[in-house]
Every structure is written in C-alpha cells, then in structure tokens.
Amino acid sequence: MAASRRRGPRVVSSSRQGRGGLTLLVPYVVLLLVVGIIPTGYAIYQSFLARSGSGFGGISAYQSAVTEFQFASSFAHIGLVLAVWLPFMFVGVLGLALLLHGQRSRLVGVYRFIYYLPGALAGMGNFVLWLFLLDPVNSPVRPILSWLGYSTLNQTAEPAHLPVIIALMLFFQGAGTWILVIYGGLNGIPEELGEAAKIDGASHWQVTRHIKLPLVRPWIAYFLLLNVAYASQLFLEPQVLGLATEGQISPQWTPNQLSFTFAFQVFDVPAAAALSVILLAISLVIGVIITTRTGLFSNRD
Amino acid sequence: MTIGSQSVDVAGASRVRRGERPPLFARIAKMTPMTFLTVVALVYLFIMVTFVLASMRSEQSLLRSGAFGPLSISRLQFDWRQLEGFSSGIYFHWLENSAIVAFAGAAIAVAVALPAGYALAMLHFRGRRVLLFLTILTMVMPNTVLVIPLFLEVSAVHQIDKLLPVAVIFGFFPFGTYLAFVHYKTTLPFELLESGRIDGVSEIGLFMRLAVPLAKQAVALVFFFAFVADWTNYFLPLVMLPSSAVQTVSVGLQELITSSQLFNPSAAAGLNVQLYMPELAFAAVLQMLPVLVVFVVAQRYLTRGAMLGAVKG
Hints:
The complex is a heterodimer of chains A (301) and B (313). Helices cover 73% and strands 0% of the residues of chain A.
C-alpha cells in the first residue's frame, strides 16, 4: 500500500476498482487454507493429544519425541550433512557462477545447460544414478572406489560416509539451478560498474571481490538459508540408501525419518505430529528470515 | 600498448625487456577458467552418459568391464520385457499415476496461480500484504515439511490412497503465484486497466481480456516448475498412496531398488525377472523422459525464471 501511494494514478484506480476482482483470489486462498494452514493447525492440535488417541495429553507427545534416543542423533546428522554440503555448495556454486560470468565464449550457454540438466532429473532418478556410481560392482568410477578400498556398496555407503555421499548427491542435482540463480543475479549488475573499476586499475579479482560479490550478497544469503531449511528436511536419500544397504543405516537417520517412523511404524501419531511441529517451526523461522531480512522480496512490493 | 601482429617475436622480446608478463602466462591465466568449466561439464556429461548407456549393457558386461563394455540397442527390448514382467507391468501403471497427478497438479497450479498472482500485483484490497507475505513464506519453506500434517488431515477425511487429494495438494504452488505476481507486475501497465474500467469492463473481464493473453510466459514457467516438483516428489506420494496400485513412479522406482537382486538378494529370490543395474537404469531413464520433454519445451523461459529466484529446495 505504501508503495502504491507514492504513485498518483494508482490511488485513483483503487477508488474505481470493483469488488469482483477478489473472486480471482478465491481458489488460491482456499488452497492456502486447505493445504497450508488447516493441516498446520491440525498437526498442532494432534501434538497435544495423549498417545492413546483420546483426550488432552499436554506436552507428553513433545516429551516422547524429544527423549526418543534417535532424536538428538538425527539432528546431529543434519548438522554433519550441512557441515560438508554447505561449504561445498557455496564454493562450487559461487565459483562456477563467477567463472561462467567472466567468459565471453558461446560455450557458456551450453555449460549452464549441462550443469542444470541433473536438476530436471532430481529425486529418485538422481538417486538411482548415484547407486550406479557408488556400487563398486558396476560403477564407472570403480578404479577410484577400489583405490579407496571399497569393493561393495555396503563399504562405500557405510554410515560414516553418509554426510559426504548425501552432499555429493545434493550438489549434483541442485548446484546447476543455483548457478543459474546466482548467474542471473550477476547479470543484473550494470556492466559499466565493472568497466569503470577496471579503468581505475582494479584487477579482475578486485572487481569480483568488491563489486560483484557485494551486489549478489542477498542471493547468496537466500541460497544458504534455503539450503539449511532443505537439509533439515532430508528424507529420500538416507531412507532409500538404508533400504538398499540392508539396514546398515539407521531408518531414523534424519528427523523426518524419525517422524515417519513415529507415524507409520510405532503408530504414535501425537509424537509424529509433535516432531512435525518442531520441524515446521525451524523452517518457519528460516522462512521469516529469508522473507524479511535478505531484502530480496521487500522491494518487489 | 599495441601488439605488432606481423612481428610477434619482436613484440614478445620487447615485452620481456620491459618486464611485463610473458604472453604465454597471460594466455594460460585466461584459459584456466574455461578449462576448469570444461572439465566440470565433462564430468557431468560422463556421469549422465555412462548412466544412460548402462541400460544398453548386460549385467555381465558391467561386472566385467565396468561402464565401458560393448553396447547393444536390442538390450533395451530386454530391459523393457523385464519391466513388463515385474508384477505384471505395474511399473507402467505407476508411470500413468505419476502422469495423472503431475499433469493435474501442474494444471491446477497454473489455473490457481495466474488469477491470484494477477490480483496480488494489480488490485488493491485489504490483506494484500499479508497474503503476499504468506505466499513468499510458504514458497521458501521445503515442501516436505507439511507431509505428515497433510497425511493426518487427509486420513481424518478418509482420502488416503486416492490420487485426487495428491493432485490438489500439488495444485497449491505458492512459488507459481509469486512468479505470476512478478510477471504481471513487470508486464502489465496500470493505465491499461484504468481505461478498461472507464469503458465499464468488469474486473473479471479485465483479467480475461488483458491478463490472460499476456500469460504465455508465466504459464510456461509455472507449469514447468510445478510439473517437475510434482513428478519428482517422493515423500508425499509415499505417505498418501501406500497401496501399490496407486503409487507414483518415484515410489515405484524405490520399490524396484528394494526388489532388486543387486541390493536385496533374499527378497528378490522369488522374482521371475532380472532387476540388475541395466534394468534399473532403464527404468530411471524412462521416468526421466516426461520431465526432459517438458524441460526442453520450457527451456527458453528458464533463465528468466531462475533470475526471479526459481528455486525450491
């Protein structure tokens, strides 16, 4: 509203605007309620029920979720994955985007496409591809795996290796999309800025360090925060890798897997709901930080 | 500084005399980024190409000579027959289910996001800022976060194992609304709406006459991102569609892995088909094709979409 008042004609337009336009919002608001807000409210309600399924249970569901012996370790695993994946992603994505941006070659478009390609094949497809790479029996990188001393999938995918393996899987499927995003951000920088600095004698590195990086900083913040939120939600990779390696990886390796176990194996629905609410709160905090602090979404209004 | 093209040696010698960097070093420094980018691209290609080609090799050849043995196109027929033989061709049924929920979900997403994005960008109403904030907030939250709560909701109304609720859930795509919002904000001038209103066109009429014809790019972007997200989603269909007959292909692919002789010899003992890496790679590539087709169609819109922050975990 504040933005619209600055421009004269729009205030006039608002006085003439008919009410009928709000019909356009109805389907979206209904879905927002049914798919977003109601299930959230229902999960909060369920999380305060007693395990027996009847009656108010206070915070007992939260207690049983938090005191579950896998609870702390599942969050520790997320921390480990982030410790490997985030620096790897940060250096890789930023490095490749900056290198691509400095090139004049026609190949830049081709390379951007190649880096992006695995992103369109994400999920289980990417997972099968990584099974192929990691299983020394068929792997195209068998020499590397055998040099590392692995001759079976269970050796390659032993639990201690999981943070590295998951980091590689996620990098392969996600980096290309983020390269596009950062590259897009770099493209938004007026070229004269870099040119002017170069005339003043700035080196390539100085232009990157003092002009390009500060200008894409909001994108980088967005990228890091979104990836932290994403990692806190890991499910597919540890879950299916656990299934493929005959149980050498805990089926409660991540919080989401623990929540899944509560809901479908232990049938402790309140505890599953409580854990979901905890995870939701984490994502919500990160989401609010992204929305209000990175500055990416404030100037669009 | 000029470089005499006809007397390279002299120019080089004078440069050395003047204590400048030798041209060879400069050339390497210039080439290094490109070389590095090329190496990374080649690694990506190597991984993807060997994987696709694995479906054209026999398991014996993969075991013996890794990913570099002889290829045969007819091997694809063999893979196809193994998939047909697995639980009487249920894999193709899973592909169908995925097609239904992903197309329906993406279509709902487009139909819902366009008018909502338009209204958020062009109309004035109370609660607009709140709705925009909620849109951005839900858009940056990972879509796995609501899976268990959604399961609790859907099972409370006894709709588990049905495709429709999954398609409807997929239809809620706040990122699409945000894309449409930015699209209209940047392409549709307010003055056009003004003159329409003076002519007495209704608000719905304005949307149909002005916004819909302009929507092509927004439709392509929203449909693409929604379709890929829906097609590759694993956690939601795993929870919402527990019965084998209504599963989608990403859960089905997991079922193939857990039924494979390669990863689960004891469970696969009773299997009447081969499910080794060639067949698994074939199945994985098969389920990638629809995404690839949509990707190629939408490709020219993608860079712009990505610049708008087209990423969701």
